[in-house]
Amino acid sequence: MSVKKFLSICAAGLLLNLVGSMITKLLNLPIYFDTSGTILIAALGSYMPGIAVGFLTNLCKAPFDHMQMYFASVSILMAILTTFFARKGFFSHFGKALILIPVLALFVGSCALFIEKFLETASFLQSVNQVNLDFNKNLMYDFLDKIISILLAFAILKKIPPNIKRSFRLLGQRQAPLSEEMRRAVEEESYLSFSLRTKLLLILMLSSFFISLSFGVISCLIFRDATVSDRVKAVDSIVSVVLNELDPKRIDDYLTLGRNAKDYSAVEAKLYGIKHSSTEVKYLYIYRFEEDGAHVIFDLNTTNVEADKPGMVVDFEPGILSYKDDLLSGRPVPPIITDDEYGYLMTLYKPLYDSEGKCQCYAAIDFSMNTLTEYTQGFIAHLLVLFTGCFVFIFVVGLWFIENHIILPINTMAYCAKNFSYDNVTDREKNMAMIKGLKIQTGDEIENLYSAMIRSAENIEKYLDHLQLAKVQVANMRVKVFAMDELAHKDSLTGVRNKTAYVGMINKLDQEISEGSAEFCMVMIDVNFLKKVNDNYGHERGNEYLMNACRLISSVFGAEHVYRIGGDEFVVVVTGDKVSLCRYFVKQFQMEMERKNTNALLEPWERVSAALGIAFYDPNIDKSADDVFKRADKEMYDNKIAMKAQRTD
User: Fold this and answer.
1) Where are the extended beta strands (E) located within 315-457?
2) Is residue 142 pLDDT above 90, yes or no?
3) Are residues 602 and 527 part of one domain?
4) How many distinct structural domains can be found in the chain?
5) 249 shares a domain with 159
6) Antiparallel, parallel or unpaired: β 359-368 and 293-299
7) What is the DSSP letter of 366?
8) pTM for this one?
9) Rounded CA separation 109/103 (Å)
10) CA distances (Å), 63 to each of 69, 145, 313, in order?
11) Which helix (H) or strand (E) holds 281?
12) Would you call 12 exposed, middle or buried from its count of C-beta atoms within 10 A (0-12, 13-18, 19+)?
């Protein structure tokens, strides 16, 4: 949804509230009808727009009726309740919508009535009592107001397209809508024991509270100072009137003669008239201060305290002792505020000077400060109600911002990171699409973190692709290295292992000997008549002769045990369980060799003749594998000599 369309819908809700309020005033109806727009916008399923419309409604009406701002908290509360029930599906069916009528009427109506009474009495307990007394009288009007508002909102909601409702539900989110699976997972992650949401909300709540408290205390102090200043001006003007009724030249006569002095009674009557002009004037008296105390000139009776007679000397009261020197010198003193057995009073002493500038006496008024306490309590009550609405509004705005700009993006990124799979290319591509699909656009460090997360994931994906390619290359190289190793250790003519492989086997056997785990035997085989075959039939037949000899050796002893270490020399190394069968293998080889040599059908190069020598490893006499080889080699030479002695050719 575009910002323009969103603002238009919210403005329509605000206008609906204001028009409804104007209609009820013009028709002098006993209902307010200024909440239908708030209910409509809140019913779309988003807290913030409903709260904003409710708050702005009271703000727009405040210039014409300042009391409206005190009911902003009621509008906010109603928006919150309506949104909550809307998300539970109460506006999807007519029957459920009707249930909201008594809920809003009772709850919101009670809160509004309580605020009204609290502003009047400035007392919580009195407000509760007044609500109990007046609730039934206002309940009918609240029901009527909510019936019209909810039915109107329900009818309008039926005409609003579903896509607009979804847009309102997702209002404020700086990313793409979440899937249902991700939404549930993110909600579970959002309510950790001490999550970032909890910390930020705690900071927001405490900061808002302390700011509101500081502003409230400062406002109360300013209000109190201003009220005291007004009281001082009022008392000063009254004392000035009193001084105008006094003749400085007559003060001595009033003091010495008292009521017998000329004009004393007339002046006293005027002073009584001045005192009775204001109910807040509790005491009025005129003193002359001397070292021995306050000499009474005039003192007016009250219902509670009998006046002192003229000429009496009264001790300095505790509240004015700090100003004794000023009073004795005839200098002005500031207002004195006391709270004692006479009550909570502000006393103002004002000097009366004669023509020569000498202080003849002080006129004093004790002014009741009880109204100041009442005004202060009323001011605090108004301030508390006003700040409650503003505090809730600021808190909800902060919560909305924190949720959509911080908590939701971080939790969705955490979900994607935790569920990112690197197992195969398909999973990685799916996870990358999920991360990029978030489309977080907060325009701050969160978006930078999201961009960095995407870049990191892309780099990891590239690294894994390169790693997979490297694995394939390494595997191919291993195959090639293995093939080259096999080639390097294989005899090119016969295909069995060569002398290089034999040296490796000797080293391995030496290691086993040093470890005490060696068990092997060696068979030294030297092929006879190779030179004769080469000379008589050519080197090709000689090579074929060697290959036939190797085939026979491999077929009997196993090709994996055969090594060609020279032109016509082969070594068989048998290890493990087959060692005990070695002599049997030698006999088998000799029998096969005998059979081939006696076969007249075979060509000379197909007949095999070889001398053999066998030696078993003996830890008592052999220090190395070479010792075993030497014994096998010696036995082979002995066998070769014996075979030459038996030949007749």
Assistant:
1) 336-340, 343-353, 359-368
2) no
3) yes
4) 3
5) no
6) unpaired
7) E
8) 0.59
9) 9
10) 9, 23, 58
11) strand 281-290
12) middle
Among the ranges given (175-184, 434-443, 488-497), the one the predictor scored with the smallest mean pLDDT: 175-184
Bridge partners, residue 337, by sequence: 346
Asked which of 324, 347, 374 is the last residue of a domain, the reply is 374
- Asked whether residue 8 falls in the same domain as residue 123, the answer is yes
CATH number at residue 532: 3.30.70.270
- How much is the pLDDT for 443? 84
- What CA–CA distance (Å, rounded) separates 624 from 427? 57
Tell me if residue 358 falls in helix, strand or coil: coil
Task: Give the mean pLDDT of the chain.
Answer: 85
Report the pLDDT value the prediction gives residue 2, as an integer from 0 to 100.
56
Which residues have CB under 8 Å from 566's CB, separation 6+? 499
Q: How many CA atoms lie within 13 A of 300 on its CB side?
A: 23
Q: Coil, strand, or helix at residue 536?
A: helix
How far apart are the C-alpha atoms of 523 and 611, rounded to whole Å? 10
CA distance 63 to 356: 56
Q: For the purposes of burial, counting CB atoms within 10 Å of the CB of 629, is it exposed (0-12), middle (13-18) or buried (19 or more)?
A: buried
CA 275 to chain centre: 66
Q: How many angstroms separate the CA atoms of 350 and 334, rounded?
A: 9
Residues 105 and 18 in one domain: yes
Question: What's the distance, Cα to Cα, between the start and end of the chain in Å?
Answer: 111
Listed residue (531, 482, 498, 514) closest to 625, CA to CA: 514
Strand partners, 526: 569, 611
The set of residues, in sequence order, having a beta carbon less than 8 Å from that of 532 and lying 6+ positions away, is: none
3-class SS shares of the chain: helix, strand, coil, % to 5: 65, 10, 20
Q: Tell whether 291 and 154 lie within a shared domain.
A: no
CB 1 within 8 A of CB 167: yes
Q: Which residues contact 196 (CB under 8 A, 6 or more apart)?
A: 406, 407, 410
> Which region among 150-159, 176-185, 327-336, 358-367 has the lowest average model confidence (pLDDT)?
176-185
pLDDT cut 90: percent of the chain above it: 33
Residue 557 half-sphere exposure toward CB, CA atoms < 13 A: 32
Among 363, 249, 367, CA closest to 297: 363
Per the DSSP assignment, residues forming a β-bridge with 243 are none
Q: Which residue's entry shows tokens 């990685």?
A: 428
| Residue whose entry in the numeric block shows the structure tokens 């085989």 | 525
- Host H or E run for residue 521: strand 520-527
Q: How many CB atoms lie within 10 A of CB 505?
A: 20
Last residue of a domain, one of 135, 155, 171: 171
197 close to 186: Cβ distance less than 8 angstroms: no
pLDDT at position 294 is 94
Question: How far is CA 639 from each of CA 428, 533, 553, 609, 646, rounded to the nearest angstrom?
Answer: 70, 21, 17, 12, 11
Q: How far apart are CA 467 and CA 476, in angstroms?
A: 14
If asked whether residues 604 and 538 sit together in one domain, one would say yes
Residue 420 in domain? no
* Helix-helix angle 36-43:47-61, to 10 degrees: 160
Neighbours of 198 (CB within 10 A): 13
**Domain-embedded: residue 281:** yes
DSSP alpha helix (H) spans, 122-195: 124-159, 162-169, 180-190
**Is residue 259 over pLDDT 60?**
yes
Residue 17 belongs to domain spanning: 3-171
Structure tokens at 360: 């003849």
